[in-house]
């Protein structure tokens, strides 16, 4: 349905639905709504343009859940969005009527939308690219066949030749216990996960795994499902994350009355007719009343039938915000287990396995250096190894501690939150393109190369899965993202230009500094 609607039409409908939401915004934040403009739609992604960083912050921090749900409802399919800043957008829309007035609630001092019947969303104009160079056709963005591509690659899992997402279970079939690197920080979680796979629904139900980004929670969820099916192939297993669960629910509820009942029956069959339900990023269902209610009912039905439920989150149950006490209580009634940041020894072990898988000859003193330098998470750890290997290859040197120190001198742990929007904006600026060029459909050589760079950096610098990254870049398939990551990683070993681009962009993003500063 989204292909038949332009960005303005989607936004006009979404804007009015947004105003019907119980938005807890200050007067200043409410005023930001008139600064939001939809300028393009690419597949399953809509581009929102705002004039300032403050408006973008409101959109991403205060409106994210509402917008994601509403866009999916309006278009009838799972949607995502990105936000770009263009200070001139107000000039393009200065003749547009203002958004409806808002009033302050005397009860909670938060802003609620006005009920004025004449409310309309701001009119949006398509932006014209500033670049008029003659496009060069390119065919190198075609992905490696999907059958050999991974969908979700856990940070704690080493590369494997055929990492595929099962069409029925949605499991990453190569995320197994054998390639999960154990250590003091995750051994208990691994042992409990293995026991759960052997006796689903018998001992640890629900199992709640929590820990920071990039520590292996997703890997363990998938490993449980794969191991359980290895023992009993007749089991019905389903892996999902909160966003996928929400989107499928929104689509089912968004159908007309005649088909809604059938869609909900199918939705319930998909999630309630399983023996093992594995739910990732469960913290993100908070604040979505309809989703919370559907999940609560699904949880209860499976639990009462003795079916196994495994949940993953970035925080323990007691620290979940925006969820009803009855649901948190059920999360806590099983066994919460944590995965902590890897110790120095575990980081070295992960690096050794990664180096062996990639046939990289690297001395122990260099592995120790990387493990000392990088402490954030496993994905960043692997990025440092790739950087050193690329530098050695480009300079035709063997890997030494001196080379590693030089390569990692600017490779710092970041305290800045890096988002896909930041990455796309920085990459567009670096390659002298527009935001729309990167997320759009153009396949010209320069645009395709920049898009692949942005996908690679999104994989390296955020906790997003390949599926989520693909959705951000105009609804592209996960195999396209994996192809981009492999291509950039390979080019780093052979082309100084690619290596330099990755290094400069990474440093600028971690410091949150534009190239003009």
Count helical runs: 21
Shape: globular
Poorly predicted parts:
93-163
| Rg, Å, rounded | 24 Å
Q: List how many beta strands DSSP finds.
A: 10
Report the biggest beta sheet as strand number plus sense, adding barrel if it closes.
Answer: 5 strands, parallel
How do the strands of the widest beta sheet line up side by side? 7-8-9-6-10
Helix content: 40-55%
Structure keywords:
21 helices; five-stranded parallel β-sheet; globular; 517 residues; three-stranded mixed β-sheet; alpha/beta
Structure write-up:
The chain has 21 helices and 10 strands. By secondary structure, the protein is α/β, with parallel strands linked by helices. Helix 18 crosses helix 20. The radius of gyration is 24 Å and the shape is globular. The two termini are 42 Å apart.
SSE diagram, text form:
Layout: H1 7-19, H2 27-31, E1 37-42, E2 45-50, H3 53-62, H4 64-75, E3 80-85, H5 89-92, E4 102-104, E5 111-113, H6 187-198, E6 207-210, H7 217-231, E7 237-241, H8 242-254, H9 257-272, E8 276-280, H10 289-304, E9 308-313, H11 325-332, E10 335-338, H12 344-357, H13 364-373, H14 378-395, H15 401-407, H16 420-430, H17 435-439, H18 445-461, H19 466-472, H20 478-494, H21 496-511
Parallel strand pairs: 2-3, 6-9, 6-10, 7-8, 8-9
Antiparallel strand pairs: 1-2, 4-5
Helix pairs in contact: 1-4, 3-4, 4-8, 6-7, 8-9, 12-13, 12-14, 14-20, 16-18, 16-21, 18-20, 19-20, 20-21
Structure summary:
The chain is an alpha/beta fold.
């Amino acid at each position: 349905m989204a292909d038949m609607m332009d960005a303005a039409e989607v936004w006009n409908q979404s804007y009015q639905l947004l105003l019907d939401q119980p938005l807890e915004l200050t007067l200043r934040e409410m005023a930001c709504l008139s600064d939001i403009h939809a300028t393009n739609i690419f597949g399953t992604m809509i581009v929102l343009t705002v004039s300032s960083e403050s408006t973008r912050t409101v959109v991403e921090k205060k409106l994210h859940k509402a917008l994601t749900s509403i866009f999916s409802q309006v278009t009838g399919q799972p949607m995502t969005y990105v936000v770009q800043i263009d200070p001139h957008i107000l000039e393009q829309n200065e003749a547009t009527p203002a958004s409806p007035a808002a009033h302050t609630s005397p009860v909670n001092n938060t802003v609620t939308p006005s009920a004025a019947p004449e409310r309309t969303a701001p009119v949006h104009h398509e932006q014209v690219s500033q670049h008029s160079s003659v496009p060069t056709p390119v065919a190198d963005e075609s992905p490696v066949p999907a059958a050999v591509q991974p969908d979700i690659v856990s940070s704690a899992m080493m590369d494997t030749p055929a990492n595929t997402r099962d069409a029925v279970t949605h499991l990453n079939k190569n995320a197994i216990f054998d390639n999960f690197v154990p250590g003091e920080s995750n051994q208990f979680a691994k042992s409990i996960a293995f026991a759960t796979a052997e006796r689903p629904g018998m001992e640890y139900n629900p199992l709640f795994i929590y820990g920071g980004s990039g520590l292996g929670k997703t890997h363990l969820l998938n490993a449980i499902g794969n191991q359980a099916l290895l023992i009993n192939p007749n089991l019905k297993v389903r892996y999902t994350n909160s966003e996928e669960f929400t989107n499928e629910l929104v689509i089912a509820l968004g159908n007309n009355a005649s088909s809604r009942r059938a869609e909900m029956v199918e939705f319930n069959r998909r999630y309630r007719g399983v023996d093992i339900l594995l739910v990732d990023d469960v913290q993100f269902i908070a604040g979505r009343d309809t989703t919370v209610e559907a999940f609560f009912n699904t949880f209860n039905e499976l639990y009462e039938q003795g079916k196994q439920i495994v949940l993953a989150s970035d925080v323990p149950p007691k620290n979940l915000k925006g969820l009803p006490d009855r649901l948190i209580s059920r999360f806590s009634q099983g066994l919460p287990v944590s995965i902590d940041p890897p110790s120095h020894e575990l980081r070295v072990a992960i690096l050794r396995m990664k180096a062996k898988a990639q046939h990289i000859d690297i001395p122990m003193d260099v592995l120790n250096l990387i493990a000392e330098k990088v402490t954030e998470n496993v994905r960043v750890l692997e990025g440092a190894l790739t950087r050193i290997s690329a530098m050695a290859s480009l300079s035709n040197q063997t890997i030494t501690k001196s080379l590693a120190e030089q390569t990692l001198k600017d490779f710092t742990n970041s305290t800045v939150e890096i988002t896909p929007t930041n990455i796309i904006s920085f990459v567009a600026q670096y390659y002298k393109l527009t935001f729309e060029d990167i997320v759009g459909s153009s396949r010209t050589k320069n645009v395709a190369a920049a898009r692949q760079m942005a996908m690679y950096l999104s994989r390296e610098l955020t906790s997003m899965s390949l599926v989520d990254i693909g959705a951000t870049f105009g609804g592209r398939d996960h195999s396209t993202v994996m192809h981009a990551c492999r291509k950039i990683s390979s080019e780093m070993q052979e082309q100084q230009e690619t290596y330099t681009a990755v290094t400069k962009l990474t440093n600028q993003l971690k410091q949150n500094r534009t190239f003009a500063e």
